[in-house]
Please model this.
Amino acid sequence: MGIFSRSSEPDISAMIQMRDVEGLIKALKHKKWNIQRDAAKALGEIGDTRAVEPLIRALKDKDSGVRRSAVRALGDIGDMRAVGPFIQAILKEKDDDVKWNAIEALVKVGDEMVVESFIQALKGKVNDVRWNALEALLKERKQKMRR
Model:
């Protein structure tokens, strides 16, 4: 599995330098959550689309820190395959930080029509600050695109 230190743990820093996407994908399945979290973050930094499906699977990890890192990484990669999983995370995730990161990622990755449709589908059914945040982020994105 890529590069390991003497303790048989993957050396995430070395994998980043070598752009070892396959090794980082394998590290997403490591038994230690901090290795998984760091691998997800690294995959987001590298931005290789080969990591999209493994990161989507990581959104189901039992550790919220791993899920949070995975959703951020998917937002950084910017692949439309993650839009559905972002929406699922917003609707079903128990950890509020993961939900917030999914909202930010959806606005970042999803096209304007997807995000607008999602907001419209929720209006009247959900009374929550998150949906107001989603609208605010969308407005901010529109303003940035006009500049």
Notes: The radius of gyration is 16 Å. The longest helix spans residues 129-146.
